[in-house]
Amino acid sequence: MTDTPQPPHSGDRLVASSAPPQPPLTRPEPRPHRPARPGGPVLTVWQRVVGALVYLVRLASRVAALALVLHAVFTVFSANPANVWYRFVETLASTLSLGLANLFQFADPRLTTLVNYGLAAVVWLIIGSALASLVRRAAP
Questions:
Q1: Which of 15, 24, 75, 103 is a Cys-bridge partner for 113, taking CB atoms 3.0 to 4.6 Å apart?
Q2: H/E element, 106
Q3: Is the pLDDT of residue 33 over 70?
Q4: What is the pTM of this model?
């Protein structure tokens, strides 16, 4: 008579791993659905106009600051002055510098440009933020 292996019983467990037992896999609870507001606050025409004006003021000040920073970066990394983009940004930056283009004078002209035009960019961001805040407050 030969001993044939018997199929394991349903209650038998084979333990071959020394790893700690894993918790049973569960699905995370779904987040509750937040329905859209059916009406929401109704904006008047005046509020929409003020909101658009605030947006335009912020956009204009950020574009001005971007032009000043681009000019500073072009100068620091010695961009080609004959390039059309360089000339365009240089013209725009000299117009938007708010008189700060020659505020500080350093031995290195690249550092002078970086500091002066960087300061002008920061001033543009401050002016744009303050003006947008004033426009927002002026609206009833």
A1: 75
A2: none
A3: yes
A4: 0.68
